[in-house]
Amino acid sequence: MPITPLMPVYPRCDVRPVRGEGCYLIGERGERYLDFASGIAVNALGHGHPHLVKAIAEQAATLMHVSNLYGSPQGEKLAQRIVDNSFADTVFFTNSGTEAVECAIKAARRYHYVNGNPERNTLITFNNAFHGRTMGAISATNQAKMRDGFEPLLPGFAYAPFNDLAAALALVNDTTAGFMVETIQGEGGVSAGTEEFIQGLRKACDEHGLLLILDEVQCGYGRTGKMWAYEHYGITPDIMSVAKGIGGGFPLGACLATEEAAKGMVIGTHGSTYGGNPLAMAAGEAILDVILEPGFLDHVTMMGDRLRQALEQMIPNHDHIFDSVRGRGLMAGIKLKDSAVSREFVAHLRDHHGLLTVAAGENVVRILPPLVIEQAHIDEFVQKMSAGARMFAPAVAA
Ligand SMILES: *Cc1c(COP(=O)(O)O)cnc(C)c1O
Question: Does residue 22 come out as left (phi exceeding 0), alpha (psi in the -120 to 50 range) or beta?
Fold first, then answer.
């Protein structure tokens, strides 16, 4: 393959969006797509949401970037709002999810270091996890496709099967710093942590002085119908990585922590040139304005319930390819039968039905619509998805 100006690390498809309108993307030739991918759970308010657009435009004209060497009234305000609406006492702003994960890993190591236990530097993470693409984040997953050829990886990670509490606890020893886990795995296949698992990890942390890091880059920020996915479990983490929906399309991430867990993160220990700049904060404020409006999360829950019902009803009608429904709220997944490959079905929906979804691990099709969808979008989705299922002929082994 000849080299391309864009480093060819993505299998880019023929959809070439040039414009967005609410829950639709418009391609170069004017073709319309119903966007139930949302830039992979990013465009929480869809495309071109007037409140977000206005906030970014006004802030761009006022002050775009200053160094973190200066005081940040914009950052203080957004951080305070996040603190007021979460378990956290303090926030570090990043430009992406993987940087938020990186900050979480560093905070956990520093915590034990300042406690006089520098040997407690190993995080227990989970099979099928996805935490991003920095060296720290790929070291925290044991998926070969993300790690091969990038060795030596960062030491200090041990891996257990997801949702296997006993296996995770069996790995705990004198070098353990804590656990890092997606409350609901996204890339891995829209697998929700069980109550027993997530609550069990919390309990083990409390008993052994370990830290619970939740990676809610994909499942947080209203996607499941609650502000944070951990709220479904009746527990709180010590540290949490957040991104994707937090900026609604503007590059923004955050590492949230309790005062105790963040106690090693003092002056000079961490930083980011762009992190938390005024433009990013304006985007973050605009998203929060909408998500925290009374009734917004109820709307997500209601739409999520209807989407789930619709998917459940579709299964018996198309049981030649649909196996089961997964997920929570508007983070949904449909697992396909072995006779179909999720990547191919996603391509079929895209190319023949104008519907955008995302493939995930375990042969799952991820359904991640903007949080602002209405019933009409679900109806259109059902019609496209059903037509797709009827017409999709799985590539028979040639
Ligand atoms: C997408 C994702 C990341 C990485 O975020 P980037 O912004 O791509 O760096 C990390 N963790 C989870 C759970 C994600 O879904």
Answer: left
Give the distance (Å) from ligand 1 centre to CA of residue 133.
8
By the 10 Å C-beta count (0-12 exposed, 13-18 middle, 19+ buried), 257 is classed as: buried
- Is 145 designated active site? no
Model pTM score: 0.97
d(CA 309, CA 358): 20
> Quick one: tokens of 47?
């495309």
Cβ-defined contacts of 23-30 (< 8 Å, 24+) = 23/47, 23/369, 23/370, 23/372, 23/373, 23/377, 25/356
Q: Annotated catalytic residue: which of 92, 126, 130, 345? A: 130
Burial class (CB in 10 A: 0-12, 13-18, 19+), 395: exposed
CA 234/CA 231 separation, integer angstroms:
5
The model's pLDDT over 216-247, given as tens digits with 9 standing for 90+, comes to 999 999 999 999 999 999 999 999 999 999 99
Asked if 130 is an active-site residue, the reply is yes
| Ligand 1 atom nearest 182 alpha carbon | 13
Enumerate the β-bridge partners of residue 160. Answer: 126
CA 353 – CA 346 distance, rounded (Å): 10
For residue 130 and ligand 1, the question of a CB distance below 6 A is answered with: yes
Give the other-Cβ count within 10 Å of 65's Cβ.
Answer: 11
